[in-house]
Structure formats: structure tokens, C-alpha cells
Design a protein that fits this description.
Elements (H helix, E strand, L loop, with lengths): L21 E4 L2 E2 L3 E7 L2 E6 L10 E7 L2 E7 L8 H10 L6 E4 L5 E3 L21 E10 L7 E9 L3 E3 L2
Antiparallel strand pairs: 1-2, 1-7, 3-6, 4-5, 6-10, 7-8, 8-11, 9-10
Length: 164
């Protein structure tokens, strides 16, 4: 419907098809994944109201890059994907090459080589070298189903959307 939506773009808003997503570690697709989630940036919020205030006021502090989670079917032979993530968890290895694909060409990643948050930016703007640490993984089996695995990671810095 024309004129609808939060931005009144005058276009139809189309949903993204989930089947086109994937999770990769570098160029290696993590085998068996069927879902992913990124809960984005939050900012610390401090109440700066004083006695006698009618309305609360706030000051804002540091930003938190959020967290990622993804999961699917357990595949113990996936040495370059699922097993590599388990080893990264064991060794607290920061991952700069974890990608959460929205479609065949666009993805979220924690580390850019171009753009505002690039560690190689030369404009004098603030730069952030970002990564994800796998903080937990869970493996499960059910007598009536397939084995499952899920991963949770903490973002250090910023995830950015790269449109391919």
C-alpha cells in the first residue's frame, strides 16, 4: 500500500525470506545452521534526575555491541565450522570473520576494512576493530529428532551490515 510504513517511502515493504540466510566463518559455511539472531547495540542509561524533578532526565554512557546466536543440526564432522567454533570457545579466540547472511549477498560482520568503523580509516574519525567471542555452545539429542547445536557469542565493538 502506497504511503504506508514508518518512512512513507511510497513503496511496498517486502519481507526477507529466511531460507536464503546462512552463517559463515570466513569463506567456510557452518554446516547445518538453520537460524541466527543478532540483538544489536544497547547504550548505558543513567538517571540524572534530582530531588524536586517532575520528569526523569538521563545521561548516556558506553555502548554495548550486543550478542549473536545461531543454531541448527549437529554435524560433528564439520571441522572448519562447528568444531572450529567450539575450539574458539575453548580458547576465548576473538573472531573477526563471522558472518550472518541475510541473503545471498548481504551480511552482518564484526570487522570492516572500509567505512566509518574501519581500523584503516584515514579521515581521523574514531575507528573500532570489532570481533565476536563465542561464549557458549550447546549440543542436544532427542530420541525422536535430529541432533542440534547452538552457539552464543558476545560482540566486542560493532556489527555492520554489508550490502552485496
Amino acid at each position: 500500500m502506497q504511503g504506508a510504513g514508518p518512512e512513507n517511502l511510497g513503496e511496498y515493504i517486502m519481507a526477507i525470506v529466511g531460507k536464503d540466510g546462512k552463517v559463515t566463518l570466513g569463506s567456510e559455511t557452518i554446516v547445518g545452521m538453520g537460524n541466527w539472531s543478532y540483538n544489536g547495540i544497547t547504550t548505558e542509561e543513567f538517571d540524572s534526575s534530582t530531588f524536586g524533578s517532575e520528569w526523569k532526565t538521563y545521561k548516556y554512557g558506553m555502548k554495548d555491541g550486543g550478542s549473536v546466536s545461531f543454531g541448527g543440526h549437529y554435524e560433528p564432522t564439520d571441522t572448519t565450522g562447528q568444531h572450529a567454533l567450539q575450539i574458539a570457545n575453548l580458547n576465548n579466540t576473538p573472531l573477526a570473520n563471522l558472518r550472518l547472511y541475510v541473503d545471498a549477498n548481504s551480511y552482518y560482520e564484526p570487522n570492516q576494512t572500509t567505512g566509518y568503523f574501519s581500523p584503516t580509516l584515514t579521515t581521523g574519525a574514531a575507528t573500532v576493530l570489532s570481533s565476536v567471542n563465542i561464549t557458549a555452545y550447546n549440543v542436544g539429542l532427542d530420541k525422536s529428532g535430529l541432533g542440534t547445536i547452538s552457539f552464543t557469542g558476545k560482540v566486542s565493538g560493532l556489527m555492520v551490515l554489508v550490502n552485496g
